[in-house]
Design goal:
Length: 398
């Protein structure tokens, strides 16, 4: 009997581990109570009267061939001629006329400071040579301006006759502005040296006004009142921010897939989803590249006054691609943005029943939003009355 009792005990002990394993295998790792489908949380059911009162209109989600685009990073840069330096035509002492500071707005011909020449340090031969050099610089600048005006006139005439391009007119006008600034600076330096030569001959020197050759902003001040400066020393740097370019570095293998002659859209990095930004047009400029990054530069001119206006600012640039592609498309009016920036559309499940669905927007073309993710083609989404349904889903009167 003792041996029988011992064997039964061993059998019971041997069975317990298998029973424990079987129980743990059948146990659920977690239990969810009161489960509600996620879609039910964003379902809005309207009565017929409410639907008519809110003016709800729907349209189908389409998959169609649309122009594709690529968004790249760009940088706001100054075009050639946008920055002009003002230097001292003669050695002298600077005397202020008004407070000059970085960022001050100046106009063309406005006197920035006066220079009292130190004629004792200048000989007649040196001044005569300086006058000759300054006068020689005026003639090429005037000839370049005349040529630029001829090109601008021709481009404007061709555009008016329907045989030209607006881009050529814009480039010609920009060249005229650059050459006008160069001519003004050359004439200013020539006149200042001629006057100094006359003062040296008469033995009486008068202050020489130093004026701004262009409209713009004082970017840098290199010399101040009471400072004695030698001839040719840099005094001011003035920039014209009304004409800015966008530099877009692209991988050397990408230009073949991009529309290099098409206009692009420029938006700031802080722009909200769907912001259309500003239009920039391609410009003709010397080719530049960076071998370290295997990239080449594309340049675009910003003519829109609402575009970013800070040189060095980083922006997003959307460039059209050569080959179009198929994408989901919904009317732009169907897209709703929440306070966190998420994009949504209201899908019509059945008559008068709507569910809010998330979407991801690639870009906006005209009145259509191109999606990278969204409802299936053929799904009906709300285009009119979107905000009214959103207000019904999240009422503020409760």
């Amino acid at each position: 009997m003792k041996w029988l009792f011992f064997l039964l005990s061993l059998a019971l002990v041997a069975c317990r581990p298998s029973e424990g394993k079987e129980a743990s295998a059948n146990a659920q790792p977690a239990r969810v109570e009161n489960a509600v489908p996620e879609g039910d949380l964003a379902t809005v059911t309207l009565t017929t009267e409410a639907r008519e009162r809110l003016g709800v209109v729907t349209a189908e989600v389409e998959r169609r061939t649309v122009p594709r685009a690529r968004t790249l990073g760009g940088e706001i840069v100054l075009p050639p001629g946008a920055a002009v330096t003002v230097s001292a035509p003669l050695a002298g002492l600077l005397a202020p006329l008004k407070e000059a500071r970085n960022g001050l707005t100046v106009r063309r011909g406005e006197v920035l400071i006066e220079l009292q020449p130190l004629l004792a340090q200048e000989s007649r031969a040196q001044l005569s040579a300086a006058v000759g050099v300054a006068a020689a610089a005026v003639a090429p600048a005037r000839a370049r301006l005349e040529a630029a005006n001829i090109i601008r006139t021709r481009a404007e005439r061709l555009l008016s006759e329907g045989a030209g391009r607006a881009r050529d007119v814009d480039d010609a006008r920009a060249e005229v502005a650059v050459t006008e600034a160069m001519l003004a600076a050359a004439e200013l330096e020539r006149d200042a040296r001629e006057k100094a030569l006359e003062d040296l001959a008469s033995g009486v020197s008068s202050p020489i006004p130093i004026t701004s050759p262009i409209d713009g902003f004082l970017m840098r001040i290199h010399a101040g009142p009471g400072q004695q400066v030698p001839a040719g020393s840099l005094l001011y740097e003035i920039v014209d921010l009304s004409r800015l370019w966008v530099r877009v570095p692209v991988y050397v293998g990408d230009p073949e897939s991009l529309e290099l002659q098409a206009e692009v859209r420029v938006t700031s990095l802080a722009a909200k989803p769907g912001d259309r930004g500003s239009i920039a047009r391609p410009v003709t400029a010397p080719p530049t590249a960076d071998p370290a990054t295997s990239s080449m530069d594309l340049l675009y001119a910003l003519d829109d006054e609402s575009a970013p206006r800070r040189p060095g600012e980083r922006v997003r640039v959307t460039i059209p691609m050569v080959v179009p592609g198929e994408s989901l498309v919904v009317p732009w009016s169907a897209v709703l943005f929440d306070f966190q920036g998420g994009a949504w559309v209201y899908e019509e499940m059945k008559e008068r029943v709507y569910v809010r669905r998330p979407v991801e927007i690639l870009h906006v073309i005209g009145n259509d939003a191109v999606l990278s993710r969204g409802p299936q083609p053929g799904t009906r989404v709300v285009t009119d009355g979107v905000m009214e349904i959103f207000g019904t889903e999240f009422p503020t009167w409760k």
